[in-house]
Design brief:
The chain is an alpha/beta fold. It folds into 3 domains: 110 residues, Tetrapyrrole methylase, N-terminal domain (Cobalt-precorrin-4 Transmethylase, domain 1, 3-Layer(aba) Sandwich), CATH 3.40.1010; 105 residues, Tetrapyrrole methylase, C-terminal domain (Methyltransferase, Cobalt-precorrin-4 Transmethylase, Domain 2, 2-Layer Sandwich); 53 residues, no CATH class. The chain is 38% helix and 16% strand. The strands form 2 sheets. The chain has a 5-stranded parallel beta sheet with strand order 3-2-4-1-5, with helices on both faces. It has a 5-stranded mixed beta sheet with strand order 6-7-10-8-9. The protein starts with 31 loop residues before the first strand and ends with a helix.
């Protein structure tokens, strides 16, 4: 049987906060679902409230029991674990709702960050609300908020996109729909797709300022800042690894799309375009040639051959 716990008190904003506990059965006899944010890297980034909830609930539903057990072991928590991930949520969500209707107290966690934000959880939350089951957020770490706050890019208005489609055509269509978006753009991306994503963003959104936040809160945390073209060059020197958040600044005159003006005019002779890029974006000749090649859909080898041919002709 689920453990019984004292109801949580409701405090006014001017009162001293009291320790809240997982609530017992409500007036309807139902339990409660807690959405517990967990660390995105550093295991110390978890709240005291989250640790207490994880200790006191009857069950923790998690993406990967092995990953969650590392966190629980660190804090000597022995609550029962059950898997809940994108491949079983169609069947697991109704099963968990049945337990909640029988007054169980359940915590939902993802491998890292806040469940339901680019992670499984939305289906279970929607089903709980449909069945009149209370859903309580227990806030904590979030990669997008942490990366955005440290990016140096405007945070007054932003749009969180999450993961773009992995297929090039669908990804380009998604970026095209964002071309007129006036707010800061925030994405999650896999390391093996981030170069292709940035190449498409350069072609569609223009050479905006951007930040690549990698392995935030972890030992190898890194922030790379610069124009999209500069970020692409940096990845050729040091390929991306780990968890990645991409932040792109709102459009400005200098970062207009390539078709918007002579600064990005791919119809210029290749040597002239390379020289322009070196001056306008403070790139060395090698980096400028790579960027000019991308604008024309050429490989670096083809661009180099054309550059040599043009020099020989003059």
């Amino acid at each position: 049987m689920p453990r019984q716990a004292s109801p949580r008190s409701i405090q006014n904003s001017d009162e001293q906060p009291e320790e809240s506990r997982p609530s017992g059965p409500s007036a309807t006899g139902k339990g409660c679902l807690y959405l517990v944010a967990t660390p995105i890297g550093n295991l110390e980034d978890i709240s005291l409230r989250a640790l207490r909830i994880l200790k006191e609930v009857d069950l923790i539903a998690c993406e990967d029991t092995r990953q969650t057990r590392k966190l629980l072991s660190r804090y000597d928590i022995h609550t029962r674990l059950e898997s809940y991930h994108e491949h079983n949520e169609m069947t697991r969500a109704p099963e968990l709702v049945i337990e909640l209707e029988q007054a169980a107290q359940i915590a939902l966690v993802s491998d890292a960050g806040t469940p339901g934000i680019s992670d499984p959880g939305h289906r279970l939350v929607a089903l709980c609300l449909r069945h009149g089951i209370q859903v309580v957020p227990v806030p904590g770490a979030s990669a997008l908020v942490s990366a955005l706050a440290a990016s140096g890019i405007a945070t007054d208005e932003f749009v969180f996109i999450g993961f773009l489609p992995p297929q090039a055509g669908a990804r380009q269509a998604a970026l095209d729909s964002l071309a007129a978006e006036p707010r800061t753009l925030v994405f999650y991306e896999a390391p093996h797709r981030v170069v292709g994503m940035l190449e498409d963003a350069l072609a569609i959104l223009g050479d905006r300022h951007g930040v690549i936040a990698r392995e935030v809160t972890k030992i190898h945390e890194e922030f790379r800042r610069g124009r999209i073209s500069e970020l692409l060059v940096s990845f050729e020197e040091r390929p991306p690894r780990g968890e990645i958040t991409v932040i792109l600044a709102r459009a400005d005159e200098r970062s207009a799309a390539p078709s918007a003006g002579i600064e990005s005019d791919s119809t210029l002779p290749l040597p002239r375009r390379v020289e322009d890029l070196m001056k306008l974006q403070n790139l060395d000749r090698k980096a400028a040639l790579k960027l000019a090649a991308r604008e024309r859909g050429l490989t670096k080898r083809e661009a180099y051959k054309r550059l040599l041919a043009d020099r020989n002709n003059h």
